[in-house]
Amino acid sequence: MREALEKIGGEARAAIARAGTSADLAAIDRRLFGEGGEISTLLRGIGKVPKEERPAFGAAANRLKKELEEVIAARRAALVSVEVEAEMRGEGFDPTLPGTRFVAGGLHPITTVRRELEDLFTSMGFDILDGPEVELERFNFDALNIPPHHPARDVFDTFWCESIGLLLRTHTSPVQVRAMERLKPPIRVLAPGRCFRHEDVDASHEHTFHQAEGLVVDRGISVAHMIGTMQALLRGIFRRDLEVRLRPGYFPFVEPGFELDARCPFCDGAGCAVCKRKGWVEILPCGLVHPNVLRAGGIDPDVYSGFAFGLGLSRLVMLRYGIDDIRWFMSGDLRFLRQF
Ligand code: DAH
Are residues 61 and 128 in the same domain? Predict the structure, then answer.
């Protein structure tokens, strides 16, 4: 038995000294200490040694185990430092190679367009904000100049939560007030996100959809700033200038309020199925922030003014890619998703 110990020890010491890389060393470590490894087997076999020899043999085997562990650790440290130095010198290591792709997948088209919008608005000095999807009634309605019995509440088919005062936000507009409460003018923010309404679901209505809210508050902000920003947005998404027109629109949180239409990017105004033969597409409700909303956000309307818009992000993505049914977005259907 003693000879067996000496033999294993001698061979192991020689192998460790010969190991040229940390990977070689790891293989030796496994051969000695891994499951069914030489040392592991030796230690497990102590019970079979005659009783009188057992204490001496056990002590010797444990000594060998400890010694080999130390020799391996020392050799590993030496090899790793040589390897790291070689890597740093550039041998066998090219820092310009692309990383490993662990996941095969793609981005949802809404994510792609959202990120493009975020880049575009960041380049214009906007901050990107997030807001809660479960929102307080106060932010979704009251602070937006929609008090409890205002008829405008009816047009937002609201999912109310059981506890009083909580709801699933019906639009991204509550982030306007949250932004004003947190930030001081000048404020420039874009807040994309999910919204919810209990709509009758059809090709253009979904219970869960995406919007992107924009808000600018500063001294002397006018409709001209708003139109310029909206044109930049459309140019960024459709990669060319689209003619725009303003029509009056009513939203309690803006005064004046507008529907900003763009020339249909598919037919250039000639009339097609996408624009329902109108030649214009309606995608950007907007307006100058109502003084009551500025006040609700703690901003003095005699000093500051602002504009806001509520881009229908889902609708914009449909226009951009020619998607004819909003229900595809939440379907999780790979036949749809793989096309992007
Ligand atoms: N929140 C409105 C909606 O979902 C859209 C909207 C209209 C947002 C005008 C705005 C705005 O910021 O100025 O119907």
Answer: no
